Amino acid sequence: MGSAAAHSKSETLLHVRGALLKPLAEGALWWAERQLLVVSDLHLEKGSSFAARGQMLPPYDTSATLSIVEALIGELAPQTVISLGDSFHDSKAERRMSGSCAARVRALTAATDWVWVEGNHDPDPPAHLGGRAAKVLRIGDLVFRHEPTGEAGEIAGHLHPCARIAGRHRGLRRRCFVTDGSCLVMPALGAFTGGLNVLDDAYTPLFQNGGMMVFAMGQDEVYPVRRQRLKPDGSRPQTSRWRMAPAGPVLEE
To answer: Spelled out in words, what is the top-level CATH class assigned to the domain 12-239?
Structure first.
């Protein structure tokens, strides 16, 4: 992933219900007008969760993910950071987290107005790590929640969107942002997170009018991808068991 310093190279800006948002190559979203940074699906301690079940993975995912967030905060100096759900891979993640990583999380939450939005993996973020919790958060005309519903102005995560892009010689698979100008689904930022192809039927209820626009993460920039270049994963049409969640209680700001 690209460094935060490379952001000036990108001209890509997204409009969502009147707000001008900048998708970043790291997989985060920057709302300059509000000095607000959004990250989604960090899945901290996913590696240790797999290890506890006998599937050994390198135990560096939490540190690698925190390094990305630290670099973004150091470069952009946001007033507010929204972690858009599934910040922790499971309810016991913070118990498995090393003391040094826990200290890094506390430093991040102390440096900004940090909001943990509730996810399906982490309904109750650990109080001792700092920040504040919200089920759903409204700021201006935008609404921030974990599981997308298609509400106008919604910024959501949960689906881990990825795009398989046809190329002249071989295809690429990239994490991506998906929007139609009314709502937006963010990519997962966590180091060990997988992805759901944007042609999966889970996206259909969100972008029903055929206006889905895909912006793939490159090395230092985010690039628009033409619909004709998008390919499914495998030869069969994609069918998903993902379901949209109803809107929950909202915290107004």
So the answer is: alpha beta
